[in-house]
Amino acid sequence: MPRQARIELRALHLPTSIGTYGPDDVVPDAHILDLDLTISPDLVQVASDDMAHVFDYDPLIAAIAAIARSRKFETQEYLMTLIAQACSAYREITAAEICLTKSPVLAGTGSLGVRLTLGAEDLAALRCAAT
Questions:
Q1: Where are the beta strands (DSSP E) in the chain?
Q2: Could you tell me if 31 and 111 are in contact, meaning their C-beta atoms sit under 8 angstroms apart?
Q3: pLDDT, tens digit, for every residue of 39-51?
C-alpha cells in the first residue's frame, strides 16, 4: 500500500443559519461539518517538529467559519460549494471529502447529511475558475 496522508476534521459545529422554515417546520439547531483532506505524506511524516514542514490547517478552518457566519444560506449545498472553493485555495490539498449534516430533521430526531467528494482534477478546476 502506498503512503497516504489525510487530515480528518470531525463534528465541527458551524455558526450558520440555513433554510427558510414555516411555523410548523422542524428547524435544525446544528449544522455539523466533517472534512477529510488528502495531502502529501511528506507534510505529515516530517523530519523535525516545525510548522514550516506541515500543512497548517488553522487558516482553512478559520476561513470556513467566516464563510458560515457570512450570511444566511438557503441550502446546505451552496455552503458546501463555498467550503469546496476554500479548500481549493490550498494547493497542498489534493482531494477533499466534505459532509455537512443538520439535525434534527423530524420530531426532534434524526440527522440529514450531504456529502461531496472532490479529486485532484475537481480541485484544479475550482482553482482555475477562481483566477
A1: 5-13, 17-18, 30-39, 72-73, 95-103, 112-118
A2: no
A3: 999 999 999 999 9
What total number of domains does the chain contain? 1
In this prediction, residue 131 carries a pLDDT of: 80
Taking a C-beta distance cutoff of 8 angstroms, is the pair 95, 37 a contact?
A: yes
Angle formed at CA 131 by CA 60 and CA 7, multiple of 5 degrees: 25
For range 78-106, the mean pLDDT: 98
- Count Cβ neighbours within 10 Å for each residue of 65-99 and write b for 16 or more, e otherwise: eebbeeeebeebeebbebbbbbbbebebbbbbbbb
DSSP string, 40-62: -GGGTS-SSS-GGGS---HHHHH
Specify whether the CB–CB gap between 33 and 99 falls below 8 A: yes
- The reported pLDDT for the residue numbered 130 is 87
Task: Determine contact, residues 37/6, Cβ cutoff 8 Å.
Answer: yes
Q: Which triple of cell numbers denotes residue 31?
A: 449544522
Expressed as residue numbers, the domain containing 126 is 5-130
Q: CATH number of the domain at 44, please.
A: 3.30.1130.10
